[in-house]
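Sequence in, structure out.
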Amino acid sequence: MDTSCLPPDPSELPTLAQYRTPEIPQYQGNPLIEALPPILNPQEAAESLRNLPEVDEAHRRLAPEIRGHLLQTVRKLFIPLPQHLDLEQRLSRMIRMEYESRNPLRPGHWGNIRAHFQTLTTALNRLLALYPQLIDHREYAQHPMTTRQLVWAKLECPFDGSVKGLCLNFLQYVDNCLGTMYGTNYRPHRRTVDDLLPIMARVASLHHLGILVIDEMQHLSEAKSGGAARMLNFFVQLINTIGLPVILVGTYKALPIVSG
């Protein structure tokens, strides 16, 4: 089974929006920002990210062969380092700055979106987990608001190595998160990457996507994607078209792909 499009936790239910008044004035009055968790200081971020396996003093008295199995719990140990806390702060700013420009209650918001359509790693997972992936908005300031907010999306590059497959994976990922049918409706084989980019932009905007993470970049193949230059142009166009922060993640094998 291909799990590259599955959300990290398919069983997790959307979080019902609970609004907090942000400390920063320009964030206030924006339900997409007010529904996010509070901004963490470094100590709070460290405590949220830290994962210490449970240790029982009685374990010391167990037989050696049993204690050997208990050593496997060290794989769950996670101690946040300064670079993790710095990344958490960057992620926090990126998501909020993006939502600041896309307040759905601002007059002309949907018209601007339509105009825009026309113009065509372990630490990271833990950082994303600080934010609910789905937030349901039902009422804001005593007014009905039927919106499901997709705060973040993280998908893997397809094993076939094509950027077209990456576009289709994105649509399938959104379907798995929201129960939509974009992957089926837009999968006809004659669609090109240029056809799929504005579709991705529309889907991302409709569901208020805050940040897109593309993992396993080393899977992309220059041969199947039309060369390194075409692939780099795709990512530049992807960021410009979707209009939201995109984080590219991969091993050192991906360096030649993104070094341009």
